[in-house]
């Protein structure tokens, strides 16, 4: 089995010993029941990975860092998932699995038919929660770079912005072209997924007017928590590293 991985946003310098932050020490010793001498991996979310050994000193836990390297497990395909807000458990699922599938960022947007309404402090708290979900997904999946979870935006504001997208794709279950019929992507690809009730006619028209390309994932209508993940997986097969 591979060694457990822990996100450590503090600076990881050269080989040597360092005391572990309380969050990591608690998770390793209390949750995973690791002990003195067990192996672990620390990563800083920016590409650095350190192999280490857990060391117990009285009431504190330390990591004896043995080697450090820049290790990339990022996809060659740059996909930003633009996900309309869904119920809390569904959004957690989407963030977790999208990170595992290799997205470079997640942009939550408010849509007319979103069952969840988030703004102000509530939105900020949910974004912080989703960022921790992304960190946990990186710990599990082996990614050393934590994808950005961006602040919640209105769909209209997102469409009016000038994102770094080379192409924006919007899911239209009953229209659009199949992914396999698109040209090979170049640069960041933004993929827009509607809420539980789908896009309104006005939102679909606004997406088209903003230059989004309508795509379909076949004749079946997928749930919002399925559609984006299926699209990312298909794009990885067609143009990425699957």
From TrEMBL:
Gene Ontology annotations for the cellular component aspect, listed alphabetically: cytoplasm
GO MF annotations in UniProt: rRNA (uridine-N3-)-methyltransferase activity
Ranges of residues in domain Ribosomal RNA small subunit methyltransferase E PUA-like: 20-54
Coiled-coil parts of chain: none
First-level EC class: transferase
An example Gene Ontology biological process: rRNA base methylation
Annotated localization: Cytoplasm
Keywords of this entry: Cytoplasm, Methyltransferase, rRNA processing, S-adenosyl-L-methionine, Transferase
Catalytic activity: uridine(1498) in 16S rRNA + S-adenosyl-L-methionine = N(3)-methyluridine(1498) in 16S rRNA + S-adenosyl-L-homocysteine + H(+)
EC number from the UniProt entry: 2.1.1.193
Main localization, broad class: cytoplasm
Known function: Specifically methylates the N3 position of the uracil ring of uridine 1498 (m3U1498) in 16S rRNA. Acts on the fully assembled 30S ribosomal subunit.
Family per record: Belongs to the RNA methyltransferase RsmE family.
Protein name: Ribosomal RNA small subunit methyltransferase E
């Amino acid at each position: 089995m591979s060694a457990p991985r822990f996100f450590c946003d503090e600076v990881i310098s050269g080989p040597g010993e360092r005391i572990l932050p309380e969050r990591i020490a608690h998770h390793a010793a209390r949750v995973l029941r690791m002990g003195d001498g067990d192996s672990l991996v620390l990563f800083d979310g920016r590409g650095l990975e350190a192999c280490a050994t857990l060391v117990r000193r009285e009431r504190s836990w330390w990591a004896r860092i043995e080697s450090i390297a820049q290790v990339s497990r990022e996809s060659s395909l740059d996909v930003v998932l633009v996900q309309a807000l869904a119920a809390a458990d569904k959004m957690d699922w989407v963030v977790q699995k999208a990170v595992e599938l290799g997205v470079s960022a997640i942009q939550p947007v408010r849509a007319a038919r979103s069952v969840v309404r988030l703004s102000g402090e509530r939105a900020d708290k949910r974004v912080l929660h989703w960022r921790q979900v992304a960190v946990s997904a990186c710990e599990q999946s082996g990614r050393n770079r934590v994808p950005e979870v961006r602040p919640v935006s209105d769909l209209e504001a997102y469409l009016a912005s000038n994102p770094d997208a080379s192409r924006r794709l919007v899911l239209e279950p009953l229209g659009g072209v199949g992914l396999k019929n698109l040209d090979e992507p170049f640069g960041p690809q933004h993929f827009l997924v509607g809420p539980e009730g789908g896009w309104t006619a006005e939102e679909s028209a606004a997406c088209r007017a903003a230059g989004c390309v309508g795509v379909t994932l076949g004749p079946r209508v997928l749930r919002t928590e399925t559609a984006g993940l299926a699209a990312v997986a298909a794009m990885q097969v067609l143009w990425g590293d699957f």
